[in-house]
């Protein structure tokens, strides 16, 4: 185990793709570039607050380095930069976006391959547009806890290594209603094979810059998809199918655990099929396909829980368009879209059958699942508790699952019992409980749980943060000592509390 300075640092993105000739500087358009070198803004008094031991072990790192991990200094081998990308935001092309408050430290060779380390909230870059390049404690805690929780849930995700508070205050208008407030600042160091997004390609295609597009595609495929190439149409299709598949699987997992990303813009879609950019995300409590945590989207609900698979397809279509200029016959790309749909359907069905203890699919199972989702929507039911209680059911009797209902008195008991009986017969009275327990988490980062951790941390108390970090490392285990606190439906106090049922992009 070593220090950041002892890691083997690389900068393939900087050496292999074209960049900005200027270092840092004011927000501006940077045509033809994939990146701009930027020096992070040193924080006033950095303090390490949260640390992922598992991530550190993968990197071969000892605890520490709060100065470097908040942008205060760099070690030899780091060449810090912000990536340039574009994106469709809420369905509209937004042009150049880029890392407005993310700065990559570099790539590190590890046993598990090369990983990129990136600071979020370490100051302005040429892509900061009108904003300050900073991040507040509340959103940093949300990113740290949730990305680590997702990893332990087996949902593909970027990781978090550390959270350092900066000792500075940052001005935020949390609900965009004119009530600005100073909040403590923080920097998260996040980790992924790369932070290349769909929008990383889109920016070049939509600006008609085929040359840069090709260089970036070459870089991406040769470093991150070593079994692929883009030498001809057939190879490109195979590569695109891999991206479609990993994206479909990621979203199928979101639907399995009840995660709502909240801002599925194309700049927030990782090329590796990893959950990326934890902003106004949320967790389904009452099983409501129309629910979105993001108040900015509360009117149209474009990114609500039930829309996520379809939005995945829409985003894949934009990705395919961005690749199309290098195809001889771009029409062939339609196959990839069909492939996404079939991969999603396959993954979804498999995971949901696992949720109800069926390991071997039979033709009538699709109907069983669709009846279940219909019933789940009929009255208020906590998704996580429902499926967890289902793991332990001893007879087809809805009374055994009453804890999952908000108002059990109003439950359509007959309909539930008849579904349970059909299911019970299908599984011969013995569902595969091992599979169920491994696919139905007992603990997820409910929105109000994150808020409890934030409220305490803003008071300088990181006990709940660390407790939740620990709890969510083993989300499928019973951990009975945490039941009273966290195996619970949304408490009354959280129902109309900002941060619990309402979130915004302001972070
Ligand atoms: P997001 O919706 O968080 O993925 O952000 C969309 C765009 O806004 C990205 O280009 C971000 O880098 C940028 N952005 C978000 N917050 C800030 C901030 N505080 N300072 C600078 N840029 C930001
Ligand atoms: Mg983003």
Highlighted features:
single chain, 507 residues, alpha+beta, six-stranded antiparallel sheet, two-stranded antiparallel sheet, 15 helices, 12 strands, globular, binds adenosine monophosphate, binds magnesium ion
Task: Describe what you observe in this structure.
By secondary structure, the protein is α+β, with helices and mostly antiparallel strands. Among the domains are: 4-198, no CATH class; 360-431, no CATH class. The protein has 15 helices and twelve strands. It has helices at 12-16, 53-59, 137-152, 198-206, 210-224, 233-257, 308-323, 334-355, 365-378, 383-390, 413-426, 433-439, 447-458, 463-471, 483-486; strands at residues 9-10, 35-37, 47-51, 81-83, 86-89, 92-96, 102-110, 113-120, 159-172, 181-192, 259-260, 282-283. The strands form four sheets. A six-stranded antiparallel beta sheet has the order 1-7-8-10-9-3. Strands 2-4 form a two-stranded antiparallel ribbon. Helix 4 (198-206) packs across helix 7 (308-323), helix 7 (308-323) packs antiparallel against helix 8 (334-355) and helix 9 (365-378) runs antiparallel to helix 11 (413-426). The protein is globular. Adenosine monophosphate (AMP) binds next to loops. Adenosine monophosphate binds at residues 97-101, 127-128, 131-134, 263, 267-268, 277, 279, 505.
Q: How much of the sequence is in beta strands?
A: 5-15%
What's the arrangement of strands in the largest beta sheet? Answer: 1-7-8-10-9-3
Mean residue pLDDT: 96
Radius of gyration over all CA atoms, rounded? 23 Å
Task: List the secondary-structure elements in sequence, H or E.
Answer: EHEEHEEEEEHEEHHHEEHHHHHHHHH
The best one-word shape is globular
Could you say which small molecules are bound to this protein?
adenosine monophosphate, magnesium ion
Which structural class should the secondary elements be placed in?
A: alpha+beta
Largest sheet: 6 strands, antiparallel
- What oligomeric state best describes the polypeptide chains here? single chain
Helical segment tally?
15
Compute the number of strand runs: 12
What helical percentage do the residues reach? 25-40%
Unreliable spans are none
CA-to-CA gap between the ends?
34 Å
């Amino acid at each position: 185990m070593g220090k950041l300075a002892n890691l083997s640092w690389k900068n393939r993105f900087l050496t292999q793709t074209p960049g900005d000739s200027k270092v840092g500087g004011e927000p501006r358009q940077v045509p033809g570039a994939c990146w701009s070198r930027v020096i992070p803004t040193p924080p006033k008094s950095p303090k390490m607050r949260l640390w992922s031991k598992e991530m550190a072990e993968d990197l071969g790192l000892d605890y520490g380095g709060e100065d470097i991990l908040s942008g205060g200094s760099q070690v030899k081998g780091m060449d810090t930069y912000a990536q340039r990308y574009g994106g469709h935001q809420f369905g509209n092309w937004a042009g150049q976006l880029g890392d407005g408050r993310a700065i990559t430290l570099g790539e590190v060779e590890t046993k598990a391959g090369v990983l990129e380390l990136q600071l979020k909230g370490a100051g302005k870059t040429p892509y900061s547009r009108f904003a300050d390049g900073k991040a507040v404690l509340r959103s940093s805690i949300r990113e740290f806890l949730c990305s680590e929780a997702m990893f332990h849930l087996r949902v593909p995700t970027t990781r978090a290594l550390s959270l350092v508070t900066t000792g500075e205050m940052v001005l935020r208008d949390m609900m965009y209603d004119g009530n600005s407030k100073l909040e403590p600042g923080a920097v998260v160091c996040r980790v992924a094979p790369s932070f290349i997004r769909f929008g990383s390609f889109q920016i070049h295609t939509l600006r008609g810059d085929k040359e840069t597009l090709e260089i970036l595609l070459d870089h991406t495929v040769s470093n991150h998809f070593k079994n692929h190439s883009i030498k001809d149409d057939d190879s490109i299709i195979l590569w695109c199918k891999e991206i479609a598949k990993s994206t479909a699987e990621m979203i199928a997992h979101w639907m399995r655990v009840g995660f709502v990303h909240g801002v599925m813009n194309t700049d927030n879609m990782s090329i590796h099929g990893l959950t990326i950019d934890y902003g106004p995300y949320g967790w389904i409590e009452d099983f409501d396909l129309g629910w979105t945590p993001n108040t900015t989207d509360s009117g149209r609900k474009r990114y609500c829980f039930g829309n996520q698979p379809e939005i995945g397809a829409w985003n894949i279509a934009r990705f395919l368009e961005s690749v199309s200029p290098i195809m001889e016959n771009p029409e062939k790309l339609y196959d990839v879209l069909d492939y996404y749909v079939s991969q999603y359907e396959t993954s979804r069905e498999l995971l949901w059958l696992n949720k109800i203890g069926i390991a071997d699919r039979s033709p009538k199972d699709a109907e069983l699942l669709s009846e279940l989702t219909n019933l789940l929507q009929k009255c208020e039911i906590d998704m996580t508790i429902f499926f967890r209680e289902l793991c332990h059911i001893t007879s087809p009797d809805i009374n055994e699952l009453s804890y999952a209902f908000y108002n059990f008195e109003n439950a359509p008991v007959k309909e539930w019992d008849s579904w349970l009986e059909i299911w019970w017969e299908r599984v011969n009275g013995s569902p595969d409980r091992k599979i169920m327990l491994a696919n139905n988490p007992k603990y997820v980062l409910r929105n109000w749980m994150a808020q409890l951790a934030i409220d305490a941390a803003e008071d300088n108390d990181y006990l709940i943060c660390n407790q939740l970090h620990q709890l969510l490392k083993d989300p499928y285990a019973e951990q009975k000592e945490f039941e009273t606190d966290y195996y619970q439906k949304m408490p009354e106090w959280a129902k109309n509390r900002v941060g619990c049922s309402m979130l915004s992009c302001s972070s």
